[in-house]
Each structure stands twice: as C-alpha cells, then as structure tokens.
Amino acid sequence: MNRETVVTEALDLLDEVGLETVSTRRLAKRLGVEQPSLYYHFRTKKDLLTAMAEAAMAPHAGAPLPSPEDDWREWFLENTRSFRRTLLMRRDGARLHAGSTPTSDLDRIRRKMAFLAASGVPERVAQMAMLAAGRFTVGCVLEEQADTGPKDGEDLPADIPVLDHESAFEAGLALILNGLEQRVRNAGAGAGEAVADVPGVIHRPGSE
Per-residue pLDDT averaged across 69-93, rounded? Predict the structure, then answer.
C-alpha cells in the first residue's frame, strides 16, 4: 500500500458516502488494513483531505496552459469552466476543495498570471480576477452539490427568474469578465493619459 493507493481509495470512498462520512476508520476497512497503518502516509485526517483535494484537481491541473496567441478573454472563461467541471467530478468536490492551498500548482498559477499580464491585464487586477472567479465557482458548485433549493421554481414568487445551475454560473461568470474588461480598459486609458502628460512627448491626434 502506497500513498497514491490510499488517496485513490479515499476519493472513491468520498464518491460513495460523501465528505461528512469519510473517516480514517472507514478508509482503513476499505483498504483491509488497521487504522494506524494510515498514519505512516498521513499524520492527520487534515493531511489526508489535503492530498485528496490536490488529487481531485488533477483534470484541471492537467489542462493545457495558455499560449501567447490565445485570446485572454476566451482563456479566462474556459479556465474557470474547467475548474467548475473538475469540482463537479467528485461528490462534495467543492467542499473538499474549499480552504485548500494549491501548493503543487503554484508554477502553473504563476504562468497563468504571466499570460494575463502579457495580454495587457494589470498584475493586481489579474490576481483579484482569478481569485474572484475561483471563489465564485466554488460557491456555485457548493450550491449545486447541496441542491437544497426549490425544484422547477416551486414556491418562488412569479417575478423571481428560475435559472438552472449552469445558466446561473455562466451569467455570473460573464459579469466577472465584463468587470475585468472594464478594469483593463480603464488601466489602458490611464496609461495613455500618463504618456500624454509627460513633457516632451508629442501627442498626435489619431495615434491611439
């Protein structure tokens, strides 16, 4: 029994019983070992859950990184959709992921940020946009996987629109992207004004 086997079986157990019921006792029984044997690989249950969260993100972590010729807007949308799809692959995937720190994915995150910066998105704005999109996605999937709301609009007032989970996600994602595009335009306009105000710089009409 190795660490990878333990994590794989733990994720299968998660799919069967849900995060609330996952325990080292159940996992040990599933693996056919004594519970203390698991501590050789994971000192605490939190360590196990962290490893599970990282492994569950494999489909998203393995997605192609952006290329310089990619449109940053389309990439931003697809990257967020990929994150959502991956969270939905596992039962309670959003709950498992929430609060985890993607330490093994830091290099990929830096390369994604570098792509956005090279595409004209100010670094700080890119960081906040990625954070906002990520947290929005986790929240959407939490709601979807909990699925405690009324079905097909029952008990909802007539003036409240009924949206399925995917439509609601796409609507919110579009709003995030629209806000990001506005911030990028504002940053570009500010840079142009700064250049125009520099002594000795000749601003010719139509040169924008």
Answer: 97
Distances (CA, A) of 89 to 61, 92, 160, 195: 14, 9, 30, 49
- What length does the chain have? 208
Backbone angles phi, psi at 99, to 5 degrees: 85, -5
Residue 100 backbone zone (phi > 0: left; psi -120 to 50: alpha; other: beta): beta
Q: Calculate Rg over the CA atoms of the chain.
A: 22
Q: Look at the alpha carbons of 150, 156, 162, 163 in this order and tell me if their dihedral is positive or negative.
A: negative
**Is 80 exceeded by the pLDDT of residue 93?**
yes
| Angle 120-126-132 from CA coordinates, rounded to 5° | 145
Q: What is the dihedral of CA 144, 148, 152, 157, to 10 degrees?
A: -120
Q: How confident is the model at residue 149 (pLDDT cuts 50, 70, 90)?
A: low
Q: Would the pLDDT of 10 be above 80?
A: yes
Give the pLDDT of residue 133: 97
Q: By the 8 A CB rule, do 140 and 169 touch? A: yes
Sign of CA dihedral 120, 122, 123, 129: negative
C-beta neighbour count of 62 within 10 angstroms: 10
What six digits make up the tokens of 132?
């906002």
Alpha-carbon dihedral of residues 177, 178, 182, 185, nearest 10 degrees? 70
